[in-house]
Write a structure and sequence with these properties.
Blueprint lengths: L1 E8 L7 H10 L8 E6 L2 E7 L12 E5 L9 E11 L2 H7 L13 H9 L9 E9 L4 E6 L8 E4 L3 E5 L2 H6 L9 H10 L13 E2 L4 E6 L2 E7 L13 H19 L6 E4 L4 H13 L5 E6 L9 H10 L3 E6 L2 H14 L9 H13 L4 E3 L4 H5 L26 H5 L11 H11 L6 H27 L4 E3 L5 H8 L14 H10 L16 H7 L1 H10 L1 H6 L2 H9 L6 H17 L9 H6 L1
Helix pairs in contact: 6-7, 6-15, 6-16, 7-16, 9-21, 10-14, 13-14, 17-21, 18-20
């Protein structure tokens, strides 16, 4: 896992070394184990490394000489920097018998694939990745991102050229783009807790979309290709027994390749279906006890899963570690966490995720496996369970996320529906395949935006801020294709989701009690905010970013409301206030929430 960045100039001159230095510093936390550069006329590439595979020889950039073009007498060099892991690199290397690989690194493989297949090279990759390749023969820069958007990649087209980086903050810190918020995207974030599509909240910064490959020449995008995350067509007709056999095979294969590492790995265990299934399979594949980290919230009213998680861990002899997340942590650490989420995703699990990663790294782990993706692929969310009889897709008689968090709170200055345009586009695209069931459409919508732009951003920023790589076996292409094609009855049954996964877990880890009612993972942010509601109201309302978007008096009234009233809206405004302080105003304080908002 690493950080990457680069510049391509329009005029073909050497890129500004000061800008490259700034980009390198801005992504250094993503790769504390080393730094590499490649600079030539018209181009500069940066990579900061978190060493996971081939610790000794895996430094980047990678270089390969390629055959000269027609009429040329010298070989040209292709160069690669990458962030991520290519899990099928062993199989791909074995298939390229004529290639003399210089290293054992997984990320050297895509460069050779590109030289053989051009922009279609990413079709063969199985992994999580953000890749930059410079083809000097064509003077072409190529950027690629994995189909589920597990790894981030951002770019900006300016008057002087094209710039890209693993995080938007790098482009802002280097002065390539000014930190200016787009109002409609800001409102989208306040309503949804995340933003959708290509455009980020920063004016002038776009996302490379999940599964997208861009070709850039002369500092401008000239071609786009896509690799789809989900298969086309509808569901497969299979029975439960055959599906259980296929699930076992697919899950074993995915977890096995996700464990390919030259450093020790651990996992995050919530005690829920997804992480318990992950633990069960890791236990089968590993001769030594698995190290499992669990977060809990002592002294609060939310359901505490630690007792159940501890029992599940004990059933397989796992090395169990608890991370207690307290109200004091919330007030002290939230500014740091919100600041790290430079592409804002106000997922309240960000704080425990950050603290889990911090603890894992302190215990000596650079790699953790996590259960994200299980809900989206196996049909776990409650919003999937009841569909209206008419319409393309509806939940409880209306489309998913038809109302934003701020609509009931009535605090926004602009109350229009423009915030939902990006989400509606994802709906239209998901509904174009008529063979899909309504459940599959709902899953496709979540995989297009909710998954990459909320869950994956949260995981990437919280883990990489602590120098930890997060791996997500449920988002493996082979396992995802199997799960998405399951008939609806094997996803939803008797009012519960993930039905097939529950059957599998009941067989291989019965201590997890997969058919028992689950409370779900909840963070008591509403409870903590309510304890300081009146004090917070005035501070949040006065914060410039919030005052631009909202009516301050209404914001204060919202925070004065009873503890259980519109807790998510309060949380979202608090998060955005802290995010704006750090990422727009540049106020990087060392203080707690109250000191940060008073700065």
């Amino acid at each position: 896992m690493c950080g990457i960045a680069g510049l391509m100039t329009i005029d073909g001159k050497l890129p500004d070394r000061t800008l490259l230095d700034s980009l390198a510093v801005s992504v250094a936390h993503r790769g504390p184990d080393g730094q590499g550069r490649f600079i030539t006329e018209g181009l500069g590439l940066i990579q900061t490394r978190l060493a996971i595979i081939d610790l000794e020889r895996g430094d980047q950039p990678f270089f390969v000489n390629q055959p000269s073009g027609v009429g040329e007498s010298t070989n040209k060099r292709a160069v690669l920097v990458a962030n991520g892991e290519i899990y099928n690199y062993v199989e791909l290397r074995a298939a390229m018998r004529d290639v003399a690989f210089a290293t054992e690194s997984d990320c050297e493989v895509p460069l050779h694939l590109y030289l053989r297949h051009g922009l279609a090279y990413a079709d063969q990759l199985r992994g999580m990745y953000a890749i930059a390749i410079y083809d000097s023969a064509r003077r072409r820069l190529v950027l690629s991102r994995d189909p589920f958007g597990i790894k981030p990649l951002y770019y900006a087209e300016t008057a002087s050229g094209f710039a890209f980086a693993s995080e938007p903050r790098a482009l802002v810190t280097a002065g390539i783009v000014s930190p200016v918020v787009i109002p409609v995207v800001r409102d989208e974030m306040l309503q949804l807790q995340f933003t959708t599509g290509m455009q980020t909240i920063f004016d002038g910064i776009q996302r490379v979309l999940p599964g997208e490959t861009l070709a850039i020449e002369g500092g401008r995008i000239v071609e786009r290709r896509f690799v789809a995350a989900l298969p086309s067509g509808g569901t497969d007709d299979t029975d439960k027994e055959q599906a259980l056999i296929s699930l076992d095979k697919a899950l074993m294969d995915s977890v096995n390749v996700h464990q390919r590492s030259d450093v020790p790995y651990a996992m995050f265990l919530s005690g829920g279906i997804d992480s318990s299934a992950l633990l069960a399979m890791m236990h089968r594949l590993n001769p030594r006890p698995i190290c499992a980290f669990t977060a809990g919230f002592p002294g609060t009213r939310v359901h505490d899963e630690r007792g159940h998680a501890k029992a599940v861990a004990a059933a397989v002899g796992a090395d169990y570690h608890e991370v207690q997340v307290t109200e004091a942590d919330f007030w002290k650490r939230l500014p740091l966490v919100a600041g790290a989420m430079d592409d804002p995703a106000a997922d309240y699990a960000a704080l425990p995720t950050f603290l889990l990663a911090e603890r894992a790294r302190a215990e000596g782990y650079k790699v953790v496996l996590t259960g994200e993706g299980g809900d989206e692929l196996f049909g776990g969310y409650s919003r999937y369970r009841t569909f209206a009889p008419r319409g393309a897709l509806a939940v409880f008689g209306r489309r998913m996320r038809s109302r934003g968090l701020m609509q009931r709170a009535r605090v926004l200055r602009e109350g229009g529906a423009a915030w939902r345009v990006g989400f509606a586009e994802s709906e239209r695209e998901a509904e174009q395949q008529s063979e899909r069931t309504r459940l599959q459409v709902a899953q496709a919508i979540d995989c297009a935006d909710w998954l990459p732009n909320n869950l994956m951003i949260k995981a990437d920023r919280c883990l990489m801020a602590n120098g930890v790589e997060g791996r997500v076996p449920f988002l493996d292409p082979a396992l995802a294709n199997f799960a998405y094609r399951l008939p609806d009855r094997l996803k939803l049954s008797k009012g519960s989701g993930k039905w097939l996964l529950r059957y599998w877990l009941d067989k291989y880890l019965p201590a997890s009690r997969p058919f028992a009612p689950k409370k779900g993972f909840t963070v008591p942010v509403g409870e903590w905010i309510a304890s300081e509601g009146k004090r917070l109201g005035a501070l949040v309302a006065a914060q410039p970013g919030v005052a631009e978007a909202c009516v301050p008096a209404r914001v204060e009234q919202l925070f004065h409301a009873p503890a259980t009233s519109m807790a998510n809206a309060k949380w979202n405004l608090l998060f955005y206030a802290l995010w704006h302080q750090h990422n727009i105003l540049g106020r990087h304080t060392e203080g707690d929430v109250f000191e940060s908002l008073s700065a």
